[in-house]
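Hi, here's the filled form for the chain we discussed.

Project: internal
Contact: R.S.
Residues: 399
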Amino acid sequence: MSKKKNNKKKTRAEPKGTAWLVSDEAYHTLCCANYTRLSDNPEIQAAVNKICDLISSMTIHQMQNTENGDIRIKDGISRMVDITPNPYMTRKTFVSAIVRTLLLEGDGNSVVIPKTKNGYLYSLNPVPPGYVSFVPDAAGYGYHILIHGQSCNPDEILHFVINPSVEYPWKGTGYRAVLKDIAKNLKQASETKKGFMESKWKPPVIVKVDSTADEIANPEGRSNILKEYIETTNAGEPWVIPADTIEVTSIKPLSLNDLALSDGVTLDKKTVAAILDVPAFLVGAGDYKESEWNNFINTRIRPLCNALEQELTRKILISTERYFKFNVRSLYSYDIEKLANVGCNLYTRGIMSGNEVRDWTGQSPKEGLDELIILENYIPQGMIGDQKKLEQKGGGEDE
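And the returned structure, exactly as it came back:
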């Protein structure tokens, strides 16, 4: 018996799904697939740089508690923290590196290794965030830090923290997760704007020609028609064209306003400003306001300074009567006239000396202005009758 041949053709299973074919130009115009670091985003970089510049520009005072108030102490340890934290950096670059690591790469954590020589502190070295990892202790609440693979106890190093974690309160959390999508949106808007501005498909004029297909099928034919009817020698010269043969239509090309990019970018910029807690004008989405700036210094810069002050105080200073303090008052927006009026009022009431007022207004001290003075009328209520101008001349009685 012969075997029956199976004449059924095998059909190839069609893949399920849908595919779209686009040109390379359209793909690069509409898509933004590359990874963008937060530090590469212009808006985030501008906000973080401003915070770093402000905090690093402040003088770090070493203060001491006294019975009559806190006074500033100037010694070797205050000079090292405020001027030369290590042989390779100044206070400006040192503090900027710490704050930038806290806000961006360090995810709310920044580590500094103190170095000692002969029992004296001589260097504070920031550690790059890529070399640091935090390991919780299995037995309890504490943790230890791995730096270049070497385990260190938290009391041996300076560990600056912002936004404490819920699971590990000793560890900070950054803004990378919440800013990631916004940074992507801003880059997508930038790529779309760039692709739109570079696109060649934006003709301002369309010319309809009553001609055969062969005449306008090639560039030479179209060029001949333009030269014959439309091309002129003088700018602004009117076109003279056949009424029934050629029709010219002016069109309005699609603009960025039609794409609504401006509103979306402004909203994203304001969101970045809200997350980083900076004024919107710092990221290009608002106008400068003095009250908004002072509130920014008081509610954003001061808390970041407190995180640095407390860690420096508890890890570096041995005396319980001393502490470090940033000069936050120098960052407030003061009008020179207002500052001078306040200083003069405090000077005439005996609250500030003349040299302290001169220091407020940025002038050098002068001899003889270190004493506190008070005007004659600013005396206690019970001594009003003792003023010389109320005493009678000649000692006679009132008439």
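Let me know if anything looks off before we file it.
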